[in-house]
Amino acid sequence: MDIKNFTIRKLHEGLMKKEFSAVEVARTFFDVIEKEDKKYGAYLRLTKDAAFAVAEHVDHRIADGEEMGLLAGVPFAMKDVILMNGEIVSAGSQILSKYCASFDATVISRLRKEGAIPLGYTNCDEFAMGSSTENSSYQLTRNPHDLSRVPGGSSGGSAVAVAGGLAAFSLGSDTGGSIRQPAGFCGVVGLKPTYGAVSRFGLIPMSSSLDQIGPFANTVEDAGIVFQAIAGKDPFDATSAEHNWSNVMDFDVACLKGLTIGIPKEYFGEGIEEAVRQELDFAREKFEKFGLKFKEVSLPHTEFGVACYYIVMPAEVSANLARYDGIRYSRIAENCDQLREIYFEQRGRGFGKEVKRRILLGTFVLSHGYYDAYYAQAQKVRRLIARDFEHVFHPSSDGGVDVLFTPVSPTLPFKTGEKTNDPLQMYLADAFTIPTSLAGLPALSVPVRKYVVGSGKLPVGFQLIGPRFSEQKLLSLGRAYEDSFNQL
Ligand code: GLN
């Protein structure tokens, strides 16, 4: 049975009907990983002991006739920034190569409770800084649709794990696009939740006012199932929001027909590749046939998004990464006992080029004399960007749209090595995902068409953006697109 391509519901049904056991599911996926991942490089470390412990427990409960939730016995992969008790978690960095987590992230404890099977840790850009996974200090990860191209980043390994059939779903983190962009590049679904919807407790922080954990999945429904399991208030994360998510999986096609979809003109201007534009037109026509109305709107501060992000984010990075001093967490600086020497060795050797670049940038924009000119100014621009969105979603404004429809990325997946020497070009890859992050809004990345790996075609994703806590609407639209229109 080809369970590696099963949806969550199908896996659940098979497990409940005892067509296969959770231990068999785990074993099948580990076999596939062993065979296939050599060419992809999605996984950094496998968590076999934890996986089989959970799987055996699930099998016992099923044997006892217990009613199990949808995620019981479903195997998943985690980005290398999400803590799991007793496992090495390194954020793709040498500085944490020996760091062993001493507790579970809240998302992990929630998935454990559900009985989901943790297969292992996936590769990512160091401390989630990058758009191609090439900034990992461990290995390259390749796009399964074309091995000469990048999978996107920073959660590239998590996207590939799902696209390559090496996990039923995976977790990533998104600060400026790191779930949506790799999902688009790899032809899978990715959800960046509303800021505060999912607890960040146990997530190795990059930029705390932007970071959110979210799922990668084969289908929108699967992404919704995972999101519902991990979302909700957490006493360990003061920024997590009190919100009732019990209706998030409600799927009412009739309700969707009256929605108005906004097309922000700034997202369809210069710099978008022709192939991306054509695919977006294709998706839009499908939506129109379904009865949805489209309307052009403007988000006038979009062009300042990347510049604003590259001030706010490094400022928070410089503060967040100060903790890796070689005294706490783990020590890679050997044979030195003077404090100053330890700092130099640890941080000098432990961090890669991009991380150092951002720490320097962040320290600069926060420093006396520059704070007002850069950091304070960027905070004001951030507000303007958020206000653009509030305006178009406001019912009485000239926008008055329910959801926005945009490309995920301006380009197709690029070649490995193509942008590594040009950080600015790399940063621009996130021009369409960054504004949403700055505004704290939810956004869903859906493949325009599902290409089978090996078909020789490169996937393109569209992005649906909604007001805060509009996940149910985004997921419904995404599901309607998949169910009714998606052509294999
Ligand atoms: N690519 C963006 C960056 O390099 C976004 C990263 C992310 O979302 N973690 O910062």
Give the helices and strands, then pairings:
Blueprint: H1 8-16, H2 22-40, E1 43-46, H3 48-63, E2 75-79, H4 106-114, E3 117-122, H5 156-163, E4 169-174, H6 180-186, E5 189-192, E6 212-217, H7 220-230, H8 253-256, E7 260-264, H9 274-289, E8 293-297, H10 305-320, H11 339-350, H12 353-366, H13 372-393, E9 403-407, H14 423-428, H15 434-439, E10 443-447, E11 461-465, H16 471-485
Parallel strand pairs: 2-3, 2-4, 7-8, 7-9
Antiparallel strand pairs: 1-3, 4-6, 5-6, 5-10, 9-11, 10-11
Helix pairs in contact: 2-3, 7-16, 10-12, 10-13
This protein binds glutamine (GLN).
The site of glutamine has 13 residues, from loops.
Unreliable sequence segments: none
Which descriptor suits the 3D outline? Answer: globular
- Total number of strands: 11
H-E string? HHEHEHEHEHEEHHEHEHHHHEHHEEH
According to CATH, the fold-level topology of the domain at 3-254 is Amidase signature (AS) enzymes
Determine the N-to-C terminus distance. 21 Å
* SSE class: alpha/beta
Q: How large is the radius of gyration? A: 21 Å
Question: Count of DSSP helices?
Answer: 16
Helical fraction equals 25-40%
According to CATH, what is the class of the domain at 3-254?
Answer: Alpha Beta
Bound molecules: glutamine
How are the strands of the biggest sheet laid out side by side?
1-3-2-4-6-5-10-11-9-7-8
Largest sheet: 11 strands, mixed
CATH architecture of the domain at 3-254: Alpha-Beta Complex
Could you tell me the strand content as a percent range?
5-15%
Report mean pLDDT, rounded to a whole number.
95
CATH homology group of the domain at 3-254: Amidase signature (AS) domain
